[in-house]
Write a structure and sequence with these properties.
Number of strands: 19
Mean pLDDT: 81
Distance between the termini: 64 Å
Helix content: 10-25%
Number of helices: 9
Radius of gyration: 29 Å
Largest sheet: 7 strands, mixed
Amino acid sequence: MAIKEILMPSLGESVTEASVTQWLVKPGDQVKRYDPLMEVISDKVSTEIPSDFDGTIQEILVELDSDLPIGTPLMTIEVAGEADVQQPEAQQSKAAPQSETTVSKQPEKTAPLPTEANPKVANSSGKKRYSPAVMHIAQEKNINLEDVVGTGANGRITRKDVLNYTPTTESVPSKAPTPAQEPSAPTAKPKAEPISFAEQGDVTVPADPVRKEIAKRMVRSVNEIPHAWVMVEVDVSNIVKLRNSLKDKFKEQEGISLSYFPFFAKAVVQALKNNPKVNTSWQEGNIIYHKDINLSIAVTTEDNLFVPVIHQADNYSLAGLAKEIDRLATEVRSNQLASKDMQGGTFTINNTGSIGSTQSMGIINYPQAAILQVESIVKRVVPSADGGIKFADMINLCLSIDHRILDGQQAGQFLKDIKDNLAKFNDEAAVY
């Protein structure tokens, strides 16, 4: 018998961490090679991780919903007919059937694992085994794990045990004061009990894994990125006229509807080519200039928001962008989006006008440098070039920027370029 580890697999070139959202097996379960073991999530895409072995699940090593680096041991499996925990090279070279993920590779050589399921190993060393998450938190908080009482299976110390651990000291009971003695200071008022919403009849529903991932990313973006916001208004009467003249023909020829959004996507891509500093990311005091323009587009479902990516968006015509936007939106809403279509975005554009918004401030899609909100087109009375007034189709473009990278002047120039690009869409040639 041997104990094998299942590691957090590589989920894409730009993915450095992921979290387990659901266990599909438990200790003691018999599994076959390629049987699904767990679901993990990264970039809001959930993926099933298969087993590399036939064997028995021994131990689960990590907590659910914890951010874990790629390569972190997730669980152990007892495998028959193996001498130690080393995986033979022949087996390492075989790839399990997979759709969107890579099967985890095993370490080249490790010592037998001290687990409760392998008492001989555990007893011979006299040491307990702790998960990587537990070890990391204990080191950060300078906690001696021998002092922590485990609440997990077989007394195992969990991540919550360490987070909730408070050092205790023995206290000498003091003598009760005599009636003549008074306290030296007023007694502190007891803390008010937190409101129990359950008592008010409210219903608590656990957030689904995608919503948890969205929450984590939004909090990280707001906490780490100093946001600034700029807005311009643009006359897009020419685009409204062009789109209305082409929409029936476009639907007949291309099989999809021509919305306004691809016009703005094309204008943004062209502006990014002239403003490369907007197509960047901040990393540990450095600004990374991305060689490709990978346009992230916000797509909503009934419950969640996804941000699929149009890779090398500058290679597409306006019609090509319309088709790719339609493809990605369809796959998001049919739950068929591939992991590769969620990775590598360098700038995000959000069609907030589809929900009737006229002005909004977007939270930047971390670690990008900016996000553009394309608002509703509204017919308004505006000044005309000859000094009079006219009815025009107006729109607000709202840009949130990472103020570590971009300043107001650079943001303003980027928006001006988008505005100028939009003014050039006057005939059918601009679409193809």
